[in-house]
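Sharing a chain and its predicted structure for anyone who wants a worked example. Both blocks are below, sequence first, tokens second.
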Amino acid sequence: MKKQLILIVLGCITLFSCKKLEQEPQSSASKQAVFGNESGLKLYTNSFYNMGFLPRNSTSQDAMSDYLAVRDVQAFLRPGAFAANTSSGWTWGELRNINYFIANCNDPAVPADVRNNYLGIARYFRAYFYMEKVKRFGDVPWIGKPLEINDPALTAGRDKRTLVMDSVLADINFACANIKATNDPSRTTITKWVAYAYKSRVCLFEGTFRKYHTELNLQSTAEKWLQDAASAADEIIKNGGYSLNTTGGAGSSYRQVFTSTAPVATEVLQAAVADVNLGVLNEANWWWTSGTYGAKASFTRTFINTYLKLDGTPFTNDPSYPTMLFKDEVKNRDLRLKQTIRLGDYKRISSGQLVPAPPVFSYTFTGYQPIKWTLDDMYFDAGALNTNAIALFRYAEVLLNFAEAKAELGTLTNGEWAATIGALRARAGITGGLTAKPTVADPYLVANYFPGITDPTILEVRRERGIELSLEGQRFADLLRWKRGQLMEQQWNGFYVPALNTPMDLNEDGILDVAFFSGTKPSPAVAGVTYVDVSPNIGNAVNSQRLKNGTSGELIWMNEITRKWEDKMYYYPIPLTDLQRNPALGQNNGWQ
């Protein structure tokens, strides 16, 4: 952006070099060149896409969530390991860039509707900036203008959540009303429908946060936010022209959205697109298929159990599920499961040849190894080489936002259920329960996830959201707004192992894949089998990977490390250095 503005200034100097210096000061000329025509406004707003608070081409945003076991327990969850002096995120420089544009986009030489279009884009980004701050810190100062170095606002305190969120909503409403573009074939820019999608996300977050965080005393205002979430999503459903991708059928259409080089235009509203020629690539394969680089993130069995059977009934209705072997538990399930983890007939490409690819225990702790974002060719495993587009907003989320907002309001109809949750499940090959809301609360969901929820529709919408949006960076925010941070304490468990020293064929291809032992590795070893030590100790060190019952049971990872959730953790602490610079900010409760 700086280079581009320098070029503009140099062009202006050349343009005005024949005029008297006192007639047109250089600074005025450069400002007019930016704000006095549409190309300057477009150039300026294009710089917003590179701001650090926006999601990039990362596929690892759910690394801290309740449904992934990772390499290490995050300091945030370890008692006494996280405090204000280790907090971060209190950064405001990018806001000034946005506010400067908003304050100066007022040149009458540019038609009002053109100015309002770019103001809508700027205010979209300001809303995004502030939403991330509110999610992280709660109350924050609302700054609606570019501040000078001696502005009193720099030493003022924080504003109330209500003021900030009302301002966020005003910004996003302006964006929805004034952004002109309704379609971007590249799916890389902010359009009117992206703004509406973001509005549905923001309003759903705030509505449910106010509903379940009763300590805020804002329950009476939650309904309006939920209504706004539903209406924003409904605007896209009725007028946006999007649909769920069904190319390739139920067995591949879901994963295709995440592995395609070009964004799947029917479903994806906005994406981070790779470009080999520009060297803009992502590292999905490297992160998910490396034993050393990524977090070795693996799904927990507790979460995998939430995937329905193909007939639409809960898998956990089967009384044998606790001791079911991996090869059996993954059969006859929601077809998104086989498009999210390695199982059954999944294969990869090695030197142009298809090869069986069961879960690999150098890459997974639990046996439930993700494939949602990875490309099947092993070529992409050795660095940041991925060419797949990373969906940032997609139609499936819009349907989920609509369904959840209406379910929370108690107004979701059977027809709306069929058009949202039913449609998502039909795409996944599920045949039952597609046309009418559920009438019975699933006891597994109540016991393991949402003990305070009795409404079966809300429970099923939450089940659907967890499965459909897995690994897309929304899970932790969902736990915050539902006030279910305690789920971060859940045990990291893996698939069931019936006995030690017994090799298992995980994908039923006739080749034994893995065996678990304690103490001494079996000898002679079976060729091709990966042996995993589940001893209580390896040498003088505690072994973090064990079996729940010692010689059998679910795999357990890092059960010896205490994870503790406290209510103060619904907000991060204000970083200590920032609090020292401005004591008027005050510290979030519990972090003093």
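Comments welcome. The longest strand covers residues 268-272.
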